[in-house]
Amino acid sequence: RALTALLRARPGLAEERLGDVLLGDLPDTAATRALLRRRAALGLGTAPTDPALVDDEGRPVPAGEIPLRLRFARSVRISVDGNAHFCRGLLRTRYPDSAADQAPRSCDGGNPVDAAEDGPACEETTTRTRNAGQIA
């Protein structure tokens, strides 16, 4: 999200050049703060001089692989969001009183990269039900 927002903010920046972007180059937004929290939780670097785009081992992604990695990340996000929506529907059907306890990712504002500046970062939103202990 943070890198896609950067691409939109800087139309002249090519995807292949995202490998040169450092964490310190990212604007101070909810998406960037969420990225830094996720990286810290995974044990990846969070220093302003660390590369923003890394693989699961913390190594910079080669320029030729960046467009494919971004497409894969977008497709995974869409799949996860779709699955979460489907699961919330099933939970509402099975436990009608649980609808108030289920929260879709509302901070996107309809745009997958525009996290709310003053709202929570989406990665911490969870779905829970009062009857969770009854789910087998």
Task: Describe it.
With 136 residues, this protein is mainly alpha-helical. It has one domain (2-134). It has helices at 2-9, 30-42, 66-94. The radius of gyration is 17 Å and the shape is elongated. The two termini are 34 Å apart. The model is unreliable at 107-136 (pLDDT under 50).
Poorly predicted ranges:
107-136
Structural class: mainly alpha
Give Rg in angstroms.
17 Å
Please state the overall shape, judged from the principal axes of the Cα atoms. Answer: elongated
Largest sheet: none
What level of helicity do the residues show? 25-40%
User: How many domains would you count in the coordinates?
Assistant: 1
| Quaternary organisation of the protein chains | single chain
| Head-to-tail CA distance between termini | 34 Å
Name a few traits of the molecule:
about 140 residues; mainly alpha; 3 helices; about 0% strand
